[in-house]
Amino acid sequence: MKKRFYNFGGYRLDTHNQRLLRDGEVLALTPKEFAVLLMLVENAGDLVGKDALLATVWKDVFVNEETLTRNVSWLRKKLGDGENLIETVPKRGYCFTAEVTMSDAPQIIVEEQTLTRIHIEETLTLPDGIEDVIAALPAVPPSPRLPVSLSFLLLFGVLSLGTIGFLVYQHYFQRAKARILFAANVTPFSGSVGRENTPAFSPDGKQLAFSWNGERADSDIYIQLLGVGEPIRLTNSELDEQYPVFSPDGSHIAFVRDLKTHGEVILIPALGGAERRVTRLFSGFASISFAPDGKTLAVVDTPDSAPGKPHAIHLVDLQTGGHRRLTAPAEFAGETTPRFAPDGKHLAFVRVGGANKQDLFIVPTNGDRGNEPRQVTFDRAVIHSLAWSADGEDIFFVSPRGSNRANVWRLVATGGEPELMATGGRDITNLAASPDGKTFAFVENTLQTDIWQWAAFQSPPSRFIASTYSEDYPQFSPDGARVVFRSNRSGRNEAWLADAHGKNLRQLTNSRYAVGSARFSPDGTHIVYEGRADENSDIFVVAIEGGAARRLTTDAGRDFLPEWSADGKWIYFNSNRTGAEQLWRTPADGSGTAEQITRHGALKPAPTPDGKWIYYSKDFNSAGLWRVSASGSAETTDEQVVAELVEAGFRHAWTLTKTGIFFVAQAAQDKIKFYDFATHQIRVLTTTSQTSLLDASGLSASADGKTILYAQYDQNASSIMLAELSK
């Protein structure tokens, strides 16, 4: 008889019903998680290669290695001791280490012509819950004795009722297996230069409204027929305008104008004409959605302009401009990207939690109390955009979902596991679906960052490390002989090394974790870096000569932006493990536990070379620097604001040396400045060729302060692409 049950530890894997049980209780696994586990268990003790797993489990759809890594990670969490059960073989695959036994299909034994006791030796291939039904039957006294034929007749009746119930459930309530969709005939919409963005189909599907900057710095609203003609400009202001959306009758277009201090929703005829202001948005600049009846717009807004108020979904009456709040996000959370379903009865949106963890929710639009939003994804991954299918059964969304690159995913609106839609795009953002559901438009970004160098008395800066991929986070070694940087030229973000001239490149890490910033130890023999997996990130150390990385942190929070202490004994880093981002430190040799350094919020740490102070920034989108004593802890140190450096500390674009601080000011992002510790003066060193440095570029200066490395965008374009949907 065919083997159908695998047993290991306290677990039992039921291959027929695709269930995993632990001590008799069912553990919830997605179909892909079950398939991965089954393949590992069937080959227990042997290496199962990554390629074999991908080819078997995802044979009908293209996915990248990050999808496999994510599913294995989820399995480990659900197994509890999964790190011991599923061993990672670096660069090759996985091995299931537990001892596995197999058993045949179940046997039902009725003892000596009685119904006194029914033994089910294994889970019978029966409807879900039938074991509980049998177990709940009252014990039958040993007398009067029943004939064997009557015993089997009663048992057959119970099983028949269960089977009928199971068939009814399968037919009426169980969702069919998710379809796999592929993008076909992917072509550029216009091929125009510049940044095309935020596409929206007209109700007849023959036109797109979109934003485009042409040869200008700001974006305007345009419309264009699909496949023919030239774009027609509808707006011509000096401000950015984005997120156009057609009214259901196609007569007007609503869009959002960015006034820097706030946003405004504007309505304009689709053929051009006078504008009408619909409402002010305290939240600023976010996408909108037209209700199918044409009377309401869904927007993202806050109650007033006070900082820190959560962004919620509001419904705006198109005639009066009146607001009705539809959702109530929790404190310190927000919401974005509202999209009405085709029937107007529901609305999908993205809810944002701490550390930018995002998931999709669906809420009824009637606003009745008790109609709470229903969560439909659980990835805690960034979601750039979403769109409903024409029949309202599916949601398409753009998200990296644990990868370095965003892709289009399809999800049945009732929930389940998203399926990847292969588009061929390198970096995808805003998405729109045609009214007939046969075509969708998405934005493909062409973002390329190179590392540039500026040396004292050199003008202008020159390219230092460049490729068709992106390089950032550069840092000199203490002796100036090497440079460590991050690059995705191998297909994912890894740490790389180069010599002092930017040549002789060598990949240093090859990890299942996406590498963030990397920093040299004071003696130049090791690199500390952040590795990101799922929604978490941890701190790792690796020797520059290569070898296995050593993991320093394992908590459930996000640990990132590590820096060495001057003596090399400590690693300082940012962590949100207590709920708010603070500075922490941990022994570099992994011998002790982490200690909290700040109490009032912190972002990027920078220990001074003399070991006395820790300088740090506080907010990603604002400037200013603070410092605390390096010898204290969160209970004993008081932070000090550095009054002279109110314009430094913007994003990651600053670095500290023995003589001063190099930085890019928030108000002058094309200039690199220097604050001199000795004179307390600030001077401009050089002007960059691009007006905006990369958000995550950082800055690095040589030990003598005479050479600077930084990363900047050298290509920053986006194109609208069209693709057909096919099964």
Write structural notes for this entry:
Helix content is 10%, strand content 41%. The protein has 727 residues and is mostly beta strands. It is globular and about 70 Å long. The two termini are 37 Å apart.
Shape: globular
SS element count, helices:
6
Strand content: 35-45%
**Unreliable parts:** 105-156, 158-180
Distance between the termini: 37 Å
Largest sheet: 6 strands, antiparallel
User: What's the count of strands?
Assistant: 56
> Helicity level, as a percent range?
under 10%
Structural class: mainly beta
Mean pLDDT: 82
Gyration radius, in Å: 30 Å
Helix and strand arrangement:
Elements: E1 5-8, E2 11-14, E3 19-22, E4 25-27, H1 31-42, E5 47-49, H2 50-57, H3 65-79, H4 82-85, E6 86-89, E7 93-96, E8 101-103, E9 108-110, E10 118-120, H5 130-136, H6 148-172, E11 182-188, E12 196-201, E13 207-212, E14 220-225, E15 232-233, E16 241-246, E17 252-258, E18 263-269, E19 276-281, E20 289-290, E21 296-301, E22 312-317, E23 323-325, E24 334-340, E25 346-352, E26 358-364, E27 374-375, E28 385-388, E29 394-399, E30 407-412, E31 419-421, E32 428-433, E33 439-455, E34 462-465, E35 471-476, E36 482-487, E37 494-499, E38 506-507, E39 514-520, E40 526-533, E41 536-543, E42 550-551, E43 559-564, E44 570-575, E45 582-587, E46 595-596, E47 605-607, E48 613-616, E49 626-629, E50 640-641, E51 654-656, E52 660-665, E53 668-676, E54 682-687, E55 699-701, E56 707-726
Helix pairs in contact: 1-3
